[in-house]
Structure formats: C-alpha cells, structure tokens
Design a protein that fits this description.
Chain lengths: 131, 131, 131, 131
DNA sequence: GTGGTCTAGACCACT
DNA sequence: GTGGTCTAGACCACC
C-alpha cells in the first residue's frame, strides 16, 4: 500500500502534495495498474487532515485518468492511456520549466548545479521503485 | 527598454510572469546594472492591467535585490549581490524543485528527458547575453 | 493571541507598524515558533483598516522568513533561520542607521544619550521574553 | 563651505539626505551660527540634481529654525533655539528608536552589536568637527 | 472559514 | 511625471 507523506510546513497545498505523490508513484511504477489506494478516511486519519482534502485529490486524479473509483470498494490505479500527444506534453513541460528556471537562475544557480540537484531528487523519487 | 509579455488566463499569476521575465532579463544580461525599467503606469497601460499588479511585481524584485526603486524617478536594475545564505538558496531551490519534478514526471518524462529539456532552455536563455 | 496596536496619522505607514510589532514579538519570544497570527480579516476588522494592508504586512514578514502562510489555515510563526548573508545584514543595518542617527543628532542628542536610550528600550523589549 | 554628499543609490530621498546632513553639521558644530550655505543653484549643479530639490530641503530647514534665508544673499545658519522641550525631544527620539530597533533586532543583531555600529557611525560624523 | 490575486481609484511624497 | 500607501470590493483556491 502506498505511503503518502505530507509536510504541513510546505507552502505547497496538501491536496497537491497528495496528487503529485500518487502521480509520481504511478509514473515510476511504485503503483501498478489495478493497485488499490488507501481509503479516503484511512488516509485522512493517518495524515490528520480533513477527508475532503483527500477526496478532492483523488477525484482530480480520476478526472485525469490516473485513478478509477469503484463504488463501495475504493480507488484503484487505472489502466494508463496517453491522454496527451507528444507535442502537448512537451508544451506542458516547457510551461513549467520556464518559471522554474527563472527562479533557480535568479537564486544564483547555474545549469550544472540545477541539473545536479534535479538528479539528486530524482534518485530519491526512484528509491523503492517496483518495475 | 525591456519588452514584457503576459498571457492572462494562465495559471501563473500575472505578477509572477512579470517577475520571472525581469529576473531572466537581468540574469542573462539583457538588462544591465543601472538600466531603467518601464514605469509602473506605462507598463500597466501597455499590458492593459492594473498598475498595482506591476507595482507588486517590482517590489518583490526589490526585496530580492534584483531592482532598486527611486522615489519619483523609477525602478532600476540593482548591482547584483548575494543577499541569501547558501543554505537559504538551497532551501528555496528544493522548494521549487519538488513540485516541478512531480509535475514533469507525471507528464511521463524521465530524468534524462527533463535534463535535456532544461539544458535546451538554458541555452536559449544565454543567447543574446551581453556581458 | 498577539495584540497589535496602530496609530493612524503617524508618519510610519500602518503596514510598517504591523511589521515592526510582529517582528518584535517574535524576536522577544512573545510569539513562539508555530504560533498562529490573527487572521488577515480579523485583524483588519479589529484595527478598522483594510485587509489588504494587513496582507501586505504579513507577506513582507513571510519574505523575510519571520512568518509562514498556509492556504486556508492562516499565518504562523516560522522556524527562525538565517536567510541573509552577513554582508547583506550589515548593509541593511547601515541603511537604517544613517537616517536614524541624522534625525537623533538633529534633535540635539549626543552619542551617549542615544546609546543610553537604545539600551533602555532593549531592556524593555526583553522583559516578558519566554525562551 | 559645507560639503554635501548624496548617494543616488540610496532609498532615502535626496532632499532628506540634504536636510539630514545640514542638521548634523549644525548639531555637531561643523557649521556655526551665521555660516553661509551653498547657493541653491550651485549645490544643485554640483550634485547634478533638480534645484527644486535643494530649495525644498532648505525651506524645510528654515521652517524648522535651523536656517535663515536673506533675500538676494542666500541661506545662513540661524541662531539656535530650543524649539522642543526635553520631554518632547525624548518622545520624538523614542518614536524613531522603536522602528529602528525592531528592524535591527529582526536582522539578528543584539544590543552590543547595534551599539557598536552606532558608535562607529557617530565617529565618522564627528570627523571634521570644529567645536 | 482561511489566504491569494486583481481591479479601480484616491491621495501623498519625490524629482 | 515618478513611486508609495491605502481603501473598497470582487473572485478564486484551499481547508
């Protein structure tokens, strides 16, 4: 069962932390098609946050085709399909790269430092990978 | 004089778009130390947005040491200096790396693709650099 | 909960009065790490001023690392950390010392009187310190 | 003849820099009663700023009883009189001490460091003192 | 309920 | 003309 962790000390909203972690787990293979997710109430209780926040995160993931909900049984990883064309995905990537780089560069980091830090972070994400 | 472009309807707030573009222009040398910026009212008029929005963007850049304001004269590019400690800069970098990577990974990109795209973008930013 | 007082009609802008008082409260331990601040709207209502003015004060305190904001929950005292380099802190100190001394000297006070008064004030600030 | 220096790189408005320096010079005895000041046009030309700015500074000093203007001859240091009572002067001092200390303390400086820095600055001001 | 963004418009300070 | 402060009020995102 996926282990979700949130940091209340972050400026990133809680529901986004949940969405991002589930997406990452699916993208990296930590969660396989058909795997169940923690129930809304269980997860909300464990993280000591409002169940509505989890429900919102899950339903966004359903809307995006990452999860499926089965009435009375819970949420499960959906069969993945490429929703976006390659071009669309690249456009979305560059949309988020530009503000990220603007901030990083003006913090005084150069290309190699940024890439280094990204590689460090990616390795942490990949730990526990099942695939 | 710097040419700023914004897209209303983006999820990125207008004032952030302005901040990012000014930061990039300064970081890449398109704007040099002492260069004046478009006046708050002029830029607001040109972009057809409220002057307060520009004022907010500029004042954030002042707080980050990118610009200086001079009452009655306008905003100017400040002499760049290290205002944040190394630890603080790393903290801010990691703050923006995590949501960025989460989004990129969930778009289906892997580490090498993300790094590739970042390197491409960085090269484009450097083109036109004066210093 | 922190009690903030402002004097309209002062030459010091309202948002600066708020910033200064919160800073003092945090620096002297009257507010501890994690303590919540009055909500933007509640404080604005209590002081009978516009919420935007409080929002401006709080967001400056966030940029200086004194507070943290959490969407939908409120503002909280942040874990204090050194965000500015030693050089930058000295630069900021000298920026405020010169106009302060110019004013004090022109009021007819000499060095020892100014230092005396500062020491008195500092002792008052430290009274009530918790840590 | 008094030598006035302004830094356009400061956030302190030019007219305030002029006012403060004249006041300091008078308070420390660098300028004695009856001494002439540089003419508005001469000083404006020397500092490469708008004559109105100097005129404004001088007329504020006249209003405060620091200078006297003699039609066609220029501005001169006025016979000093105590405009404010001791109580009033102390009130004004504490008015400016509080925001100053709030900022200094939250920059991480303690009492001895602040006093040190003030003593350094005061020595610089006193250099060239005539009295 | 909370904070975040943006608008429209006023009045003041500075050059 | 420039920026700085403040108000009033809207709409959205988050919990």
């Amino acid at each position: 069962m996926l282990r979700i962790q949130i940091t209340t000390g972050s400026s990133l909203p809680i529901y986004r932390q949940v969405v991002d972690q589930v997406r990452c787990a699916v993208a990296t293979g930590k969660l396989a098609v058909g795997d169940p997710l923690p129930s809304v109430r269980a997860l909300a209780g464990e993280l000591v946050i409002n169940p509505n926040t989890i429900a919102k995160a899950y339903s966004m993931l359903v809307r995006d085709g990452v999860l499926e909900s089965h009435q009375g049984r819970g949420y499960f990883v959906a069969r993945q399909r490429d929703i976006y064309t390659r071009k669309e995905r690249l456009r979305r990537l560059s949309d988020i790269i530009d503000p990220f780089l603007a901030e990083a560069v003006s913090l005084g980091f150069d290309e190699s430092q940024i890439v280094d830090e990204i590689q460090k972070r990616m390795q942490k994400l990949s730990v526990g990978r099942t695939e």
